[in-house]
Structures are given as C-alpha cells and as structure tokens.
Amino acid sequence: MTVSGLDFRQTWLWRQAFVNPRSDSATDEQEFFRTQYLAIRERAGHLVSRIAVDLPGMTVHDVSHLDALWDTASSVAEGAIDVNPAEAFVLGASILLHDAAMSLAAYPGGLVEVKTTIAWKDAIARMALAAEESDSGEFDTSDPPEAIVRQIVPDVLRRLHAERAEVLAEQSWISADGQQIFLVEDSDLRQFYGPTIGQIAHSHWWSVHKLEEELSEDLGALANRTKHLVDRVKLACVLRVADALHLDSRRAPRFLRTITKPSGVSALHWAFQERLARPHIELDAVVFTAGQTFGRDEAEAWWLACDTLNAVDRELRDVDLLLQGRGKEVLKARRVKGAGSPELLARTVKTRGWRPVDARLQVSDVPRIVENLGGSKLYGNDPTVALRELIQNAADAVQARRKFQRRPSNWGEVIVSLPKRDENYWLVVEDTGIGMSEQVLTGPLLDFGTSFWRSQMAMEEFPGLMAAGMHAIGRFGIGFFSVFMLGPIVKVYSRRCDKGEETGRLLEFRNGTSSRPILSPAERHEVPIDGGTRIEIMLKADPFKPGGILSAGSYSQKSISLAVLVGAVAPNLDVSLAAVHEDEAEPVVLPGDWLKITDADLVRRINPLSDRSEIEGRKADRALMQPILGSDGSVFGRAFINPSKYSYMADGGWVTIAGLRASRLYNVQGILLGEATTAARDAAQPLVPKEALATWASDQARLISELVLDEERQARCAEVVLECGGDIGALKIVRWGSDWLNISEFEGKLRSVEELVIGFRGDFEYDEERDGVHPKEFREDFAQNAEVAIVLRHDGGVLRSSNMAWPNSLTGQPKWNDSNVAALVRSLISRVWGDDASEDEEERGVGTVGYTEITRDMAVYRPATVDVEI
Q1: From residue 467, how far is each of 435, 453, 458 by CA, in Å?
Q2: pLDDT tier at 536 (50, 70, 90 boundaries)?
Q3: Per residue in 649-692, pLDDT tens?
Q4: What are the start-end ranges of the H helices in 204-345?
Q5: 335: closest CA among 347, 319, 351, 359?
Q6: Is 359's pLDDT higher than 70?
Q7: For residues 407 and 542, is the Cβ–Cβ distance under 8 A?
Q8: Residue 367, helix vs strand vs coil
Q9: What's the DSSP call for residue 865?
Q10: DSSP calls for 775-799
Q11: Would you say 725 and 690 are in contact if contact means Cβ atoms under 8 Å apart?
C-alpha cells in the first residue's frame, strides 16, 4: 500500500497502539484492529478524494491530510495518554470520516439527496433574497441555474459535513450489481463501534461543553475481540486538537495551489499554510514556525494565520480545561506559543519589512475562525446574555479598582441605560471601574479566549492586584464578543482610573467583527469622569418588540422595564447596579441587599413576569424565605421550597454565579450561590454543602407544616425536603380517603386497620380502556374511596442537566419508584407492621363516578399477624 507524506505507521500513536508489545493486549488483537483500520482507510481514501472536486478552493482534505493527523495527534499525546488498540481503531476511523462528508459522494443519492436538506433550502432562499435585493435577477428556487448550484454546493456541504459524518460508518452505498458496500466491512465492528465512530467524527464540530455532555460515558468492550473500553471524550479531544493543529504546508502544496488557483479567503489560507512548518512541542506549548517570512504583500495572510492560531490556542485551552476537570489523562500541549500577542507570534512566524502591531485585526473575523475550527455559537440567541456579560465585565472592573486602590467593599457602581438617538436605541453600560489602557483595549479585550485578569499583562499593568485577592467573574476571555449579538455598531470608551484625562480612548466597531475596529483619542467629556469604561451598542432590534432585549419572551406579549431586566440578570451582584429612567439613575441592586430586601421583592426581582398581587397575597411564602447558612455562618443562598407546577418546567429561582443568573431552579424559589460548569456560564453547580442544605430543608419542613394550609402542597414539599436530605417533620405525605396524614398520623392509622390499599403514582387519572365514563365526568365527579390511600408522584429535584441531577448528586438520597416519599411510606409500613408484612398487587375499587365503580391495580399491604381468608 502506498502511503503519502510522513508514514503514519511510524508515528508514536500508531506504534504504541498497534505495533509495540503491550502488557494489556495480545499481538493478534493489535493485528486485528490494525488490519481493519487499513481496510477502512482504503475505502475512505476514495471518498475523500472527491472533496477537491466539489470544494475546489479548499486546502488539502484527501487521505494525506488524514494520515497527517496521526502525526499531529502523536505530537500532543506522546507520553501523556494511552490509547489501546480498540481506541486507536475508533480514533483512526473517526479521523477518516470527520471531513469525508464534504463531498457529494458521501450522499448515496448525490446532489438530489443534498437538495432535500434544510441546509440546501436555506441556502437557496438566501441566494434568492440576495438576488432580489441586488436586482441581479430572480430565479426559480426549485430549479436554480447551474451557476447558483455551483456556488451553493460547497457552502452546504461544509455546513452539513460534521452531522453527516455521524452516519458514514454505518451507511451503505449500492454497487452497480445491487450489492451493499460499506466503509466498515466487518459487520460486527460496524454495528458495535459504528455509532461511536460517527459521534466522535461529528464531535469535532461541537462545542467542548456539548462534547462532555454527549460522550461522557465510556463504550464497553467488544466481546470476543478485546477487553478494552473506549474513552469517547478522550478520543474526541484528540481528534479535534489534531485537526486544529494540522495547518502546515502538507495542507497546501505549492504546486497544487499553482494549478488550482484558489481565490478570496481560500487564497489567504493557502498562502499562510504553505509557509508553515510541521508544529512541534516546547514544554506545554505548540510552536508554529514558517519556512518563509511574510512580506508586506502577504500581511493579510499573516493576520489570518494569527487569527487561526489564536483560535487553535482557545481550542487547546478548552480541551485542557475539560480533561483536567475529568481528573484523567491530559494532553501534552495546552496552548499555542505566541497566541494572543502578534509580536510574540512574529518571533516564530516571521514577517519581513513590517511589524504586526495592529491588534485590531485579531477580531477581524473571529466567528468564522471559531466556526472553521468546529466551534458552535457559545451563547445561543438570548439577547439578555450580552447584557449579563457586559455587567459581569463592568463588575470585574469595579472589583479590581476596589482592590487596586484599597477602596471599601461596597464602593463603585455600574449604570445601565437605554437612550434613543435619532431613530435607534442604544444599550449603554458604564462602570466606575479600573479602566483600560490602550494596550488592553487593543490586546486582551480583542483576543478571543484570553482573560485579561489571568494574563501576564494584568500583572504588568497593575502590580499587586492579583496578590490583593482579585478574583474576576470572567475566566475565559470570551464575554465581550457577545455584544455583537445585539448589534454590529459598538463603541468602547475607557480610561484607567489612575491616569489623566488625556489617556482616554475610544475603540469603535462599525461593522461588527467583520471589519477592523478604529482606535482614537476620546474627547475629555466622552469618557467616564473619574475613570472607568462605558460600552455603547446600537441595537439592531427594537428593545420593546418581540426579540428585543426587553421582550418578556416568546410566550408573552409583554415587555419589561430596563430596571426590572437589570435586576433579573444580576439579582445579587456585589456591586451597586442602577438603571437610568427619565435621565435619572435609579438604584436596582445594592451589594448584599438580596439578603435584606423583603421576600416578595426578591421573588419579583428574579422572576420579572411574576404576578405582583399573587406574590404579595401569599403571606405564607413570605415567611418561608430563609437564608441557607453553613456551620460557620457562610451564606450559600436565600430561598424557600415552592414545588413546581409542572415537572417539566423550571419556574423557580436561580443559581447565580458571582451575582449573575446562570441556571433556573425547579421546586425552589430564591437564589442559590453557584459556580460555573461551562465557559458560557449558562450552567452552574450550587455551592451549598450537604449538611447546610439538609438543615435548611428541615427548617423549611417545620415552617411549611405550620404556615401552609394547602395539604397537597405540603406533600409535594415533603418530596423536595427529602431530596435535599432534610427531615420532613409534620408535613403531610399520604392522602387516605379525603384526609391528608403526616408520619405520626399515618402510623396511627395503620395500627387501626388490617389492610392498606395504596397507590404510589399520584392522583388517579382517566383510563380510556378501563373506565366506562366520559373523561369530563371523571374529572368533575370522581370520588376516592375512604379506605384507599395515595402518595403523590412529584420530582423533588432542584437542578437538572443532561449529566447531573442536583441535589441527588450531592445527598445521594436513595429513591424507590422515583419518589423519596414512596420510599419513606414503605419504611413506615415496615416499622408499624414489621418487615414480614405482605405486599401484593391487586385490582381494587378506588372510587366512583356517579354509580360507576373505578378500579385500578393497587399495592395491598397486610400485617404479618393477620390471617387472610382465601
């Protein structure tokens, strides 16, 4: 077999998995997986060879690129991680398939099949609209001209390729004689490993956060072939890093560029990649160098290389963050040397006749660079996220100034306004913080993925700040870029708090990140009077209309005030927060006030759409709101148990991160302090310890039993209390006939009867197959039998995500039939009637609708000492 370029079979990763003797694998196992990979490679090579036909401007994506990924993967994995033969097979197959769908050949139905996709229809519609707006001529979208098709195909294939890669390992092509042809010929391997290969191939286009969510569970061993598990997260990380790092001249051969003549941005990619040498590792950094320097005529190509390597650096850091968090193996490389500093990068990727000091180009097209490296949009489409990020940055700046100038812990302010200038609304966020120098404005602020507060420049600009205990909310250096969700025209005014007025600067973005920002001296009256920063965004959407920043959401026609929105976004910020109304700044949040304001005011703050009269009318709730305290008096929240109306809908309080809302709560109203679990800070883990949570829950049970008259609500609260590890005390838990009973009442009732008929699935619901009545009659007239008991079915969880249920993950509270109360009731039955009490399932009459008896399958318990006649 001919192998192009550096022989992948000589790479460390290949030899470690398939060639070198292993104590955990037999030679025939290595040989089997090696042979199977090579068979797939032969077929995949034909498939990827078609990419150059359908995407002629792209850099090399043929089998030589795929082979080279063994080399780049080895460079970051050697000596750091172990890949067993089964994992190497899966990784190799994922490498072969991750870009293979950037060709019509990946679709058995060819172009006809591609035209059935939503991506194709979107692209056609966009082209039609552009043609209509430019007066270039309309066309039939069901049968577009050949020129339009040629223009759309590459874009659609790029958009679909990662998703399509997920099915390629199991997909078949039909030969001329009608036979099914597969990339993975061995049916056992295809059926067992195919889905995982597809997912990992697809994952190179996911966010790192999604990768962790989707691939967290290892794949077990293929029986009779291996004893090895497949660590899917590890392999996905290796693939995405290897793919990101392969940017050298092997991707852009000079002669191939000469004969293909790429144009536009593609030409710039070829221009910089053909100069780059194979990257190497120094300590924990990947080092890129260039065989040729970049002259002034190649400056754009150099800047594109700079942007791309900055994005690679972010990829490495995100992957490292994920792997570090798992507590397992990590890659050797954690960053790109020189990333974040054009001048440092120019020491290895050299320029000739010019210096790359214009930091404005670092953000020239960050969204495209991130997308090209497989990242998805970090924040989604919620416009309030940008406001949250702006407030977070402003709060960080105020906190820094407090530390730097030894100001009081309640000093400083953030003011938000929404002025209308001419016909446009502007969102303005101003702080009295530490301010930014010109170097910070044109450096870390614009360097996607680099947090200023954790950079070398922070220590150089503000010596002693970190030592003084500065702990920034922002950690990932990405929050500022969220402002472009709101509009492309952005102005940043800033002056360092310890410098004169003449140092004030204005950084203007006139067309989002697609054009270079303009840096200029700011007029004295434009910058914050005592130093600090003001950011202004011209909103692309009317803030009061659906989709605007003040819109209450898709389920409501309401809009909320700016003050209400600001309070909801940052309900317990440790910096004074004000909103401008009729030219006056009105306080919205004060440091620590969330622990002092009335319960009703706190609920209204965190739930802007709450009905004011309903909140104020529920006096019991106001008495229930209690702080959550640690053994040393530390505050972890202020909340009360409030069972969600619908188990699938989070309608409670919030977990906040440094005072900013992050994750919505179920069954609990109020605020729990938390820490971020994602870079986007859209998910959080509460910080409250197990013991503090249990104590608070027990206190809640006592208050609820005293103050809440709704006994059914008490029963739902009991489920939450138990979920939190608390003691339910006198809360009602069982409805026996029409009476609700607490623990002591239930035990007393048991002692007075010789049989218990009980259901653990909650209220009886209409059963079309069993009930001979009309549904409306059932709903209105059903009367439960007095001798029948039920336990409500309610999920007592407080926080849910794809891989975690809290507080169950903290308390480890055991469940039976998904109900803590059900488990408690069973234990009470055993305590009263003994462990030998009989338990049967029988069909029993549970109630009536008029004169019609309603029956259900019920659990029937009897004490062991009772003889039952048959």
Answers
A1: 19, 12, 12
A2: very high
A3: 556 899 999 899 988 899 999 999 998 766 545 568 899 999 99
A4: 208-214, 232-245, 254-260, 264-273, 299-326, 342-345
A5: 319
A6: no
A7: no
A8: helix
A9: T
A10: HHHHHHHEEE-TTEEE-------SE
A11: yes
Buried b (16+ CB within 10 A) or exposed e, 798-819: bbbeeeeebbbebbebeeeeeb
Question: Length of the chain, please?
Answer: 870
Which tokens is 634 given?
A: 């530390």
Give the distance, in angstroms, between the CA of residue 567 and the centroid of all CA atoms in the same chain.
Answer: 24
Task: Give Cα 170 distance to the centre of its chain.
Answer: 28
Q: What are the phi and psi torsion angles at 542 (to 5°)?
A: -60, 120
- Residue of 324, 333, 300, 308 lying closest to 449 (CA atoms): 308
Confidence bin at 362 (pLDDT 50/70/90) = very low
pLDDT reported for residue 869: 47
CA distance 791 to 277: 69
* Pairwise CA distance, residues 387 & 380, whole Å: 14
pTM for the predicted model, two decimal places: 0.57
Q: How far is 415 from 394, CA to CA, in rounded Å?
A: 9
First to last CA, the chain: 80
* C-alpha separations of 501 from 532, 539, 699 in Å: 11, 29, 55
Tell which residue, 200, 159, 166, 158, has the closest CA to residue 61.
158
Q: Which two tokens stand for residue 868?
A: 């039952």
Q: Facing residues of 491 across strands?
A: 508, 536
Neighbours of 59 (CB within 10 A): 22
Structure tokens at 86: 């089964």
Question: Hey, how many other C-beta atoms are within 10 angstroms of the C-beta on 425?
Answer: 21
Read off the pLDDT band of 270 (50, 70, 90).
Answer: confident
